[in-house]
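Good morning N.,

You mentioned wanting to compare the apo and holo forms, so I went ahead and generated the holo version with guanosine-5'-triphosphate. This is what I fed in:
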Amino acid sequence: MRTSSNSPNTESAGAAIERGDLRTFARLITRIESGDESVLPTLQELYRRGGKTPVVGVTGPPGSGKSTLTDQIVRKWRIAANRVGVLAIDPSSPFSGGAILGDRIRMSRHYSDPGVFIRSMSSRGSLGGLASAASDTLTVFDAMGFDQILIETVGIGQSETDIMNFAQTVIVIQPPGAGDVVQSIKAGLIEIGDIFVVNKSDMPGAEKTAAALQEAIAFRGSSSPWQIPVVKTQASTGEGVDELIQQIGKHHAHMTLHPEHRIQKQRRQALARLLDCINELMRTRLGNPDDPNGPFHSLIDAIVERRTDPHQSALTILEQIAELAPVSPGVC
Ligand SMILES: Nc1nc2c(ncn2[C@@H]2O[C@H](COP(=O)(O)OP(=O)(O)OP(=O)(O)O)[C@@H](O)[C@H]2O)c(=O)[nH]1
Ligand SMILES: [Mg+2]
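and this is what came out, ligand included:
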């Protein structure tokens, strides 16, 4: 796809996104996922003009009810919001409402709501790294002018801590079961939640789990005046979802009232993104580490054979990058 600089008579992808063109939106995300470097000028343009809609992140262990709860949140949001965007990373369960963008994964179960846009993303498909692809996709979501944006990631592996690099408000879902709280503590989930939810509160042990979470949160401590709430929900019926929506609103108001906290979070996110971009850029410039003719390969050999050390090699690589003639930067 060409941008306006190449074809003055054609609307740029960025302009099409900003007027909410769904075809361009879906195509752009597909290109981001496939690591297509030519999307970079559009992403740069959109990023610089963006930052309008804060992102709400939902994470938690597999099967805790993330997708069911997301459905409920989106339903409630839609009462006041015109358009809601949902990005689901590696979803294994379907959503019931909304248009599914892109035909790769079909999640629509019951009906289609033209005001809800759901895009799924698979970690397998993204060449430039899932975090990068998700982050760039959220830039596009933001530019689409959605009133609300939500990202769902499963709380295992890398993605649960990545979500704090995307979202202004992180919701951590916990199913009833004391052992699960211990698992969440181990996975670092307690550290990242702005709001905790004990979903499946119809099941035995919900009260105990809520108490265990309160304890873990108190132990975590925080310098922020934000009182981290624990909300009990039953996503399958919608019980407790009103309170959750209220808490999301309260957290947003807190971030607006305390710009120092918002900026601190934004700076941390910007740093994570920047380091990610540097990493991607190094990889694209230095090529595949397994390529026997690439610069990585011989350096790794030298480290293994102790002819050099990792510290010196890192400096060598940075010098090599600085010497490389400007090339079109890779998507990061
Ligand atoms: N009893 C009960 N079941 C629920 C509740 N919420 C969700 N479920 C059920 O729990 C199962 C998993 O829910 P999902 O929403 O798919 O959970 P998820 O966290 O998105 O799952 P993954 O995407 O696979 O990680 C489904 O069968 C839901 O119907 C609830 O509040 N109570
Ligand atoms: Mg799910």
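The beta strands are 55-60, 84-89, 99-100, 116-121, 148-154, 169-174, 195-198, 230-232.

Happy to go through it together on a call whenever suits you.

Best,
F.
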